[in-house]
Write a structure and sequence with these properties.
Shape: globular
Strand content: 15-25%
Number of strands: 4
Number of helices: 3
Radius of gyration: 14 Å
Oligomer: single chain
Order of helices and strands: EEHHEEH
Helix content: 40-55%
Length: about 90
């Protein structure tokens, strides 16, 4: 899996690609949609890593870096388990 190939999203019935996703989200009235925009911006940058915050369930929450490829593998395993289909 190549994380850079994953740059399309349909959100609230609007089909978006690339930086258009981030731009659409960042001007939303919804804080959650703006957070998606920030995540998408980081996803589309050149870094092979993305920063995530731990839950803090076993100590203080902290920010860690995870490889984007690992996130794709995790999402793929989740989709397989729940028998998600494309679209």
């Amino acid at each position: 899996m190549n994380y850079s190939e994953y740059n399309e999203l349909t959100l609230n019935g609007v089909s978006l690609t690339g930086k258009g996703i981030e731009q659409y989200c960042l001007v939303s009235d919804s804080e959650n949609i703006r957070k998606i925009g920030a995540f998408i911006g980081e996803w589309l940058d050149d870094s092979p890593f993305i920063r995530v915050r731990t839950s803090g369930s076993t100590g203080l929450p902290k920010v860690i870096e995870v490889r984007k490829e690992q996130l794709l593998q995790s999402a793929s395993a989740t989709a397989t388990f729940f028998e998600f289909k494309k679209n």
